[in-house]
Amino acid sequence: MRRLILRVHLATALIAGAFILVLGVTGSTLAFEPELDRRLHAHLSYVKPSGRVLSLGEIGDAVSRQFNAEPIVAYLPSRSADFSWKVILPRGIVCVNQYTGEILGVRTRGQTILGFAHELHVRLASGDVGRNILRWSGVATLISLASGLYLWWPTKRFRICGCWRSREFWFDLHNSLGVLLWLPLLALAATGTVIAFEDQAADLLGKLTRPVQVRSRQSITRREPAPGAQIITPDEALAIAGAQMPGAIPYRVQMPRYGGAYRVSLDDPGDRVTGGHNLIVIDEYSGGVISSTRSSDLSAAQRILATNEAIHRGDVFGMPTRIVAWLTCVMVPVQVISGLLLWLRGRNSRVAVGKGAL
Fold it and tell me: Domain 50-111: which CATH class?
C-alpha cells in the first residue's frame, strides 16, 4: 500500500506540478492585489485629504467636462480618505481627486501585470482550456496533500539535516515544509477547487440545504414616467440607500442608463465574509426603493460559497489570514522544486545502479 501511495504522490506531482507552481506564484501576487495595484499606480490611487468631499454630481460634472459628456456607467467611492474615487466610463476608469475634482488619469481596459496574473491564476490566460487544467490541478493538489501526509505519518520526521547539496537536505526540507504548510495549503486547495467547480457546488449545496428566499421588498410599482419627469441625482439615490442601511459603506453607484435603475452596492464593515452582498435598487424618477437585498438574506448555500471564497482570499480574519495565505503561496514553489529534485536524484540513482548491474 505504501508503495502504491508513493507512486500516486509522485504521479500527481509530476503531472500537475507545473500548474501547481503557477497557482502558487500567482496566488502570492494576488494575496495583496489591492495594495500592489495602488503601489503600481500611485499617481492615480492616492490623494491628500483636504477640505470637503465633493458630491457625486460635482465629480460627474468634472469628468463630463474633461471627456466631452461621455455617459457615466457608475461611481466607485473609495473606502478610505486617502484613496481616490473612480468614475467608470465606456472608455475606462477615471481616477478623480474627490476633494478638488482634479482628474488624475484614466485606466483603460487593457491588460495590466496584475490582471495578467489574475488570468493566469484562474484560467492560465487561455480561456476554458486553461480553466479546466487548473480545475483538475486543484484536485491533484488535494490528492498530493493526502498521500504526502500518509507517507510522512509513520516516521513523523520534522527536521532538516545535511548539506544543501545532499539528497537528505532536500528530503527533510520537502517533508518539514509540507507538514508545516499542510493545513493552510489544504484550506487554499480545497476552497480553490470549490471555486473552480462553483456551479456544481452550488447545485449540490442547493439540494443539501433548504433554500431561503431572498427578501426583496417591493416598495413601489414601476410605471412609465410622466412627461417631463426629472431623474433624481446620484447623490439623492445614495442618500436613499444610506437611509436603508445606516452604517453601511457604499462602494458602487450604478447609473440607470446601465442598470435600469440606480443600483447602490454597500459594504457592512462588521461582516468580513458576506458584508459586500448588499444592494439597494432605486427608481430613478420617484426615488422609491424597488428592492433591497441584504447579506443577512443570503441562503445557506450562498453563505457557504461566500465563506469559501473569503477563506481562499484570506479575508476571514483580515490581515493575519492574508499573510498566512501569502506565505503559503510563496512556499509552494519551494515545495514543488524540492519534490522535483528528489525525483530526479532518485531516478539518476536508479539509472546508475542499472548501468552498474549491466
Answer: alpha beta
